[in-house]
Amino acid sequence: MSKSKTKAKHNPIIDCLNQIFQAEMSGVMRYLHYSFMIMGHNRIPIQKWFRDQADETKMHAIQVGEKITALGGHPTMQSLDVRESHDHDVNVLLKESLHYEEETLDLYKKLVALAVADDDIALEEMARGFVLDETTHIEDVQKMLRKKG
Fold it and tell me: Are 38 and 87 in contact (CB under 8 A)?
């Protein structure tokens, strides 16, 4: 049995998972809000992309919440502050998305390191999968922000 399953209180793994849970839950709110605020001739595909991001982020939050409880922890009810720029230009929203994805990626990388140190291979594999997902999101947003040519 890994060390993480023996001690739930003040466990750095559960603390990190709760930070990730907060980030993912804030991502659901962020991406849904962005999807509502898209206007113009490209509304439908961009709105769909933001809604797809919200759905995927919700699934990440569910997986992380389940892992927290599997390790004996309690998913937090505290939420992160989601800053509202009130600038709903697609490029601005994409830049905000990029910043959010980079912060979330850092949390998942921290979780990988904690899982390795705890010798919890299953948690490490889960975290690495999320690192791949977040890296892919970052690359997609970077491509979307790139100028043609």
Answer: no
Closest CA to 71 of 24, 126, 147, 108: 126
91-111 core/surface letters (b: 16 or more CB in 10 A; e: else): eebbebbbebbeebbebbbbb
The domain ranges of the chain are 10-75+87-145
Region 10-75+87-145: CATH code: 1.20.1260.10
**12, 68 Cβ separation under 8 angstroms:** no
pTM value is: 0.90
d(CA 58, CA 54): 6
Instruction: Give the pLDDT confidence of 52-94 residue by residue, as tens digits.
Output: 999 999 999 999 999 999 999 999 998 888 888 888 899 999 9
